[in-house]
């Protein structure tokens, strides 16, 4: 099992992209959370097989039709440093962030 | 969806060698009927009585239904001395023009679709490679692509680890730069020029610029046609027929990075002709 922090940069509809990421995480069987989100950057922490974490980054680098992802950054995390990981995928950002529609 | 972006681009519609004096060709470009004619002095393109822009480059006739916003892309290597320029004719394919380009960018299918020629089932690995959207040139590039090929070209004997670069200079054109078996340090150029007939049908015009003085012309054409006919059966059975710009129902992996960059670039350019813009 691997752990990673993935960041996406660009311009997007925050709520739509967060929902899309949640759908993708569920499809790939990943757990973790979106920890920060704005209309220009989304940061998530995910846990799963290494290949699936890579697949998560690749899929989200295209994202939904209204997202323009300029670049991504994936960093694997030492499992010893990974604690308090949820056993499902959750979006840990406030409703005011998700309401931030372009 | 035909929008201004699609209308204002250049598209191949014939081989230059087809246009003998007095010749008149009927073609369909994005669902519109056009004519290409040669009056013995010049070549012309029309939609009804409307004169269309026209140019002859890379052994093909190019036209546009609109007012092209930028010149046709350059392929400098195609003008180097000593290369053989090979126009391979036309292959009609019942698929989205964007699907045809995307398939050309996909290395992972080589071992399974072009078994024994461009790939081997016991060498399916796609090593990591670099992909970028070059904002200055407005093109997609994939570099440092390496793949084992049992017979990388007509002139190749035995398997080699082939080096590749892919370039997408226009939404319906892809250029492959590939290890040249006959001349170390040079790239063979293999291009796919795609004429959108409709959103779900296209005519593909492969063209090559090779360092190969030995292989008979017909063998070169036949080699390329064989490869593309193998692709055609795959292309015509893809679902959905349009190229999804939202991969919600797909599971792309690292091997698909070129395809993903291509789709991102199409989305950014708002080139939606032949694309599916809502998640299935």
SSE blueprint:
The complex is a heterodimer of chains A (102) and B (280).
Chain A: E1 2-11, H1 14-28, E2 31-37, E3 41-48, H2 50-60, E4 68-77, E5 89-91, H3 95-98
Parallel strand pairs in A: 2-5
Antiparallel strand pairs in A: 1-3, 1-4, 2-3
Chain B: H1 4-7, E1 11-15, E2 24-29, E3 32-38, E4 43-47, E5 50-52, E6 54-57, E7 60-63, E8 84-87, E9 91-93, H2 97-105, H3 110-113, E10 130-134, E11 139-149, E12 160-170, E13 173-179, E14 187-196, E15 202-210, H4 217-235, E16 243-244, H5 257-269, E17 275-276
Parallel strand pairs in B: 16-17
Antiparallel strand pairs in B: 1-7, 2-3, 3-4, 4-5, 6-7, 8-15, 9-15, 10-11, 11-12, 12-13, 13-14, 14-15
In summary, what is this structure?
The complex is a heterodimer of chains A (102) and B (280). Chain A is an alpha+beta fold and 102 residues long.
Features:
heterodimer, A: 102 residues, alpha+beta, Alpha-Beta Plaits, 3 helices, 5 strands, 37% strand, globular, B: 280 residues, N-terminal domain of TfIIb, Naphthalene 1,2-dioxygenase Alpha Subunit, Chain A, domain 1, 2 domains, 8-stranded antiparallel β-sheet, 4-stranded antiparallel β-sheet, 5 helices, 35% strand
Task: Give a verbal description of the structure.
- The complex is a heterodimer of chains A (102) and B (280).
- Chain A has 102 residues and is α+β, with helices and mostly antiparallel strands.
- Chain A has one domain: Alpha-Beta Plaits (2-Layer Sandwich).
- In chain A, 29% of the residues lie in helices and 37% in strands.
- Chain A has 3 helices and 5 strands.
- Chain A has a 5-stranded mixed β-sheet with strand order 4-1-3-2-5.
- By secondary structure, chain B is of the alpha+beta class.
- Chain B folds into 2 domains: 4-63, N-terminal domain of TfIIb (Single Sheet), CATH 2.20.25; 83-276, Alpha-Beta Complex (Naphthalene 1,2-dioxygenase Alpha Subunit, Chain A, domain 1).
- Chain B is built from 5 helices and 17 strands.
- Chain B has helices at 4-7, 97-105, 110-113, 217-235, 257-269; strands at 11-15, 24-29, 32-38, 43-47, 50-52, 54-57, 60-63, 84-87, 91-93, 130-134, 139-149, 160-170, 173-179, 187-196, 202-210, 243-244, 275-276.
- In chain B, strands 8, 9, 10, 11, 12, 13, 14 and 15 form an 8-stranded antiparallel β-sheet that branches. A 4-stranded antiparallel β-sheet of chain B has the order 2-3-4-5, with no helix packed on it. In chain B, strands 1-7-6 form a 3-stranded antiparallel β-sheet, with no helix packed on it.
- In chain B, a hairpin with a 7-residue loop joins β13 (173-179) and β14.
- The longest helix of chain B is centred in the C-terminal third of the chain and has 19 residues, at 217-235.
- The A-B interface holds A 20, 23-24, 27-28, 51, 54-55, 58-59, 61-65, 68-69 and B 245-248, 250-254, 256-257, 260, 263-264, 267-268, 277-279.
